Amino acid sequence: MSQRNECVTGDVGGGEACSLMEALGRVSGKWSIGVLMETTRGPVRFTELERALSGVSRRMLTLTLRGLERDGLLVRTVYPTVPPRVEYVATEMARELYDHLLGLTEWAERHRADIARARDAYDNAT
Question: Which residue intervals define the domain HTH hxlR-type in the entry (predicted)?
């Protein structure tokens, strides 16, 4: 079953909940936040994104970029050069999201040690 059909429900209001979960799923993907943070600063080429997101595979980066473009969060521009030059830039909708992503990443940074301590305490107790 495709992802497009997974959210079909008979519940009243189910469409809104589905749309919310789809949107959150897209922007909370492992690599999506990094891509959005990089592309909000201005046009970025694929190889620049690959270097900025250490650990991402070329395939995963490609899939992430396609998904974000499909959802209207990125614009992909291909320049007719040899070899072709491709740039990605955040849309206005993605730039609106930027402040929230920045807040989320700052929160994660502030609480990184707290989370590590909580994990250690949990693991030692079980």
Answer: 18-116
Tell me the residue range of the domain where 99 lies: 3-125
Number of domains in the chain: 1
Mean pLDDT of the region 31-42: 94
Residues linked to residue 78 through DSSP beta bridges, in sequence order = 86
Instruction: Output the pLDDT for position 55.
Output: 95
In the sheet that 85-90 helps form, which strands lie side by side, from edge to edge?
Answer: 44-45, 85-90, 74-79
pTM score:
0.74
What is the CB neighbour count within 10 angstroms for residue 77? 10
Residue type, 20: L
Which residues, in sequence order, are CB contacts of 58 under 8 Å at separation 6+? 50
- Strand (E) or helix (H) holding 125: helix 112-125
pLDDT per residue over 9-23, tens digit each? 444 455 666 678 887
Which residues 6+ apart lie within 8 Å of 61 measured at CB?
A: 31, 35, 46, 49, 50, 53
Residue type for position 101: L
Those residues whose C-beta lies under 8 Å from the C-beta of residue 55, and which sit 6 or more positions away, are none
